[in-house]
Amino acid sequence: MRARTTPVASLARRVRSRAARRLGALGALAVLVAVADLLAGRSLDPGAVLEVLRGGGDPTARHVVLHLRLPRLLVALGAGAALGLAGLVLQSALRNPLAGPEVTGVTPGAVLGAVTATGLGFAGWESPAAVCAAATVGGFTGAGLLWLLAGRDRGDPAGTAVHGVLVSAVLGGLTAMVLLVAPGELGSVVQWLVGSTEGRVWAHWHLLWPWLLVWAAAVWLLAGPLTLLRLGDEPAAAAGLATGRARALALLCAVALTAGAVSSVGALGFVGLLVPHLAVALFGADLRYALPGAALTGAVVVCGADALAQVLSRHLAGWLDADRLTLPVGALTTCLGAGLLLVVVRRAPDRTF
Amino acid sequence: MDLTEPPGISVEGADFGYPGRPVLRDVDLRVPPGELTALVGLNGCGKSTLLRLVAGLLRPDRGRVLLGGDDLARLGRRAAARRVALLHQSAPAVPGMTVRQLVRQGRYAQRGPLGMLRDGEDAAVRRALADTGVASWADRPVDALSGGERQRVRLAMALAQDTRVLLLDEPTTYLDLRHQLEVLQTVVRLRAERGMTVVMVLHDLGHAARFAERVVALRDGRIVADGAPKEVVTPAFLAEVLDVAGRVGEDPHGGWPVCYPDHPLTAST
């Protein structure tokens, strides 16, 4: 029998553990895609970017890298992490492999909030705080609607999924109505609907990171209850978990994280739905590891997609001879995500998770 | 080994029902400390509901449930789960979990939400893995196990709760005869080793008569028979409790009653 371990020995074992190695590898990958994202833009060649990073470069290059590309990169990483976490929390709390912020009314609600604020002129694209507040209110409204409608079916994956699709459809319809009434700056509004990291500046990042930090920490403290909720309500309750309270807290965190992501990059499709599957495949269902894993995976996915979208934009612009063409990262995640979702559904047709 | 007496169970005048559908009516049940009791009855007679009342997962509409003198209604969920563990009849699949991780989840009641974040497993997990004979495959994924192996793992998770009261809801369902006997003998052995009060719902009257010290029968939400297997398991018992005509003999070696069911008496309702 093993002797009682000291904290140091326990830490050493943790560092050696497979989960820790994978987290490390993902972290390295995140750095890699971050650098790629920084280099991928169109207006500067990689050499000039590296020049700026070494502290040199002309003022224009410095502005582009330090005030446009860097905040955009950080916002992409942060939003990806938030969506990955929110998705894993939702899937665990609702015991539903097809739950995600997109299909539980949270993202559509946040988009409605942001579009209403922007479209009706309460807040401009350039005043992120007001948009952020509106998206948060919208996200909670969407989740609240689902909570009320699902009623007694809250523990039942199928019932929740059906009600979630219903709520999302209604909120999407309301968003369309707002757009018809107040077309306003349609260009920027479309960015909410598809999801884009274009034009994100330090103001967005300064709003995003404290919010993300607080809620990610809260979520990690809930790792124990969330792991239990994945076992089903009755087994979790028998093991001593007050399931109702745990689920309500988890949903609160998921909505807050989603609202933060949506208010900074819009409705990035499929990230919150698919990243959790990757994270559980890599880290298992012990959420002490899978939650940080989902955050890192989400960051890597969104940041990587952003880099890819920029490279594709450059080539597409060349082919189509359209100078100002930009491919929003949300279009890319949605296309790639749909393909991946098909794989997930085909691979595990008869499983709850 | 804990030599103190485990808590007994007493259910006092408990009613329970859903709107328009009473399930339990005026149930009185006293299980003395350390006894192994089997609950039997037809499908829907309320035996699983009674088990949930004793586990504190459901609250009686009237009456009360005491564990060793403490009213369950006054205990929080975690405090209740430190006193009583329940093995469910069936549990959903849990992809992505190893045996050790799943069994560790049984420690929630003792450790609490923040305690679960700490790494390292405690003695109770090791003991539960060893006691159920699953220690050698502790690092295999639960999903890769057979039904019988999985049931032992779930028993280990309940044991990791380290309670003195253990409830089992049809622990042998879906298992072949060999694994049924394996699970029941493990329960009997651990009850003696750990000093636990055990109540289990069993469908197989043969198992109940052989392994339990006492058989309690429910019919339509009421207790209709209660006593040692030899006293209560009779042809009349088969008819009144299970709606079956049959004969009852005696095992030539062990002396426990053996049922020879013949045919159902009435169409089930």
Automatic annotation (TrEMBL), chain B:
Swiss-Prot/TrEMBL keywords: ATP-binding, Cell membrane, Ion transport, Iron, Iron transport, Membrane, Nucleotide-binding, Transport
InterPro entries registered for this protein in UniProt: AAA+_ATPase, ABC_transporter-like_ATP-bd, ABC_transporter-like_CS, P-loop_NTPase, Siderophore_ABC-ATPase
Subcellular compartments: Cell membrane
Alphabetical list of SUPFAM superfamilies matching this protein: P-loop containing nucleoside triphosphate hydrolases (SSF52540)
Pfam families in UniProt: ABC_tran (PF00005)
Coiled coil location: none
Membrane topology: Peripheral membrane protein
One CC-aspect GO term: plasma membrane
Domain ABC transporter as annotated: residue spans: 9-245
A GO molecular-function annotation: ATP hydrolysis activity
Principal location listed in the UniProt entry: membrane
PANTHER family: IRON(3+)-HYDROXAMATE IMPORT ATP-BINDING PROTEIN FHUC
Protein name, per record: ABC transporter ATP-binding protein
Source organism of this protein record: Streptomyces chumphonensis
